[in-house]
Amino acid sequence: MSTTVKGVIARAKGQPVELTDIVVPDPGPGEVIVDIESCGVCHTDLHYREGGITDDFPFLLGHEAAGRVSVLGEGVTNVEVGDFVVLNWRAVCGQCRACKRGRPWYCFDTFNAEQKMTLTDGTELEPALGIGAFCEKTLVHSGQCTKVNPDADPAAVGLLGCGIMAGLGAAMNTGAVGRGDSVAVIGCGGVGDAAIVGAHLAGATTIVAIDREDRKLEMAEQLGATHAINSSTLSEDEVVAAVGRLTGGFGADVVIDAVGVPATWRQAFYARDLAGTVVLVGVPNPEMELTIPLLDVFGRGGSLKSSWYGDCLPERDFPMLTELYLQGRLPLDKFVSERIDITGIDAAFDRMGSGDVLRSVVEMKSGGTA
């Protein structure tokens, strides 16, 4: 029997979000229902609202979530009712060519729930990143549920579900930052700051934060950056030169572009040491194109990488990072700028655009009526 709950949808491009009734069907084979306790307000949700992802409106927004499993579908064995889980949007299949080659973080056939949640009139909803967690309850594939220590604050560890994992993983997984490395991070929003934290955890000794706003740089230094560069009045070449001065004249071993525009990628490319690594984790717009001399690519060597979801494996990374958080070694609480209720999402989008917050987190009590 289906359950009706409250959830937040984007009904049309650029329109304010709407709190409305959502019908959640009973889980089918391999599916579960999760009672949502918290969900971060991510830039990706705003992109959905603005039509920047697809035009498959209406969307059920929200995806950086933590909650408890409440109903199991047939054949589910990886979680039980009552388990505290962080949701992920790349549930690996275990069977595709990437998985079989031992690289499941590149899985080419990730799982989502097959059934759709709907409006009360039967209109099917497209859940953001296959999750749809601005909702009291949501329906997901069981592989999207990763069990973590229930002692953790849902508002903090739920952020591992997207942006924080993207930044941490860009440094620790994709960039393979190691002890004694030098790292530069361009763009100090939530993802960039998470990359700084990841570089610090991995043992980098020089961590250069680059942004156009002093307040963001101050937060980056609180999270582990050893140096800060305000790029607001600097040319691309001047940013590169500044990184060079802070790294013995060589450039950084790893440079992480958390902005994702051609200018910042070029800065990243030239600000690294010879044979250094560039990691692109900021998401470009489809219209963007990059021009760079091919001889420079050849002559500088090294690696040019893109980071998908921090190249994470949720079942490996989420529990480990949750334990680091509980040990006081991973400052996830500092990313929770404010706690809001489900009616405050459009206002949170506005604050996001002004740069006033790292993350607004929706906290809710799960409920619903049959």
Q: Mind telling me the CATH class of the largest domain? A: Alpha Beta
- The radius of gyration computed from the alpha-carbon positions, rounded to a whole number of angstroms, is 21 Å
Number of domains: 2
Low-confidence stretches: none
Number of helices: 11
State the separation between the terminal residues, measured CA to CA.
7 Å
CATH level-two architecture of the largest domain: Alpha-Beta Complex
Average pLDDT value?
A: 96
Order of helices and strands: EEEHEEEHEEEEHHEHEHEHEHEHEHEHE
Beta-strand percent range: 25-35%
Task: State the CATH topology of the largest domain.
Answer: Quinone Oxidoreductase, Chain A, domain 1
Output the CATH homologous superfamily of the largest domain.
Medium-chain alcohol dehydrogenases, catalytic domain
Strands, count: 18
Query: Could you say which overall geometry the principal axes of the C-alpha atoms support?
Result: globular
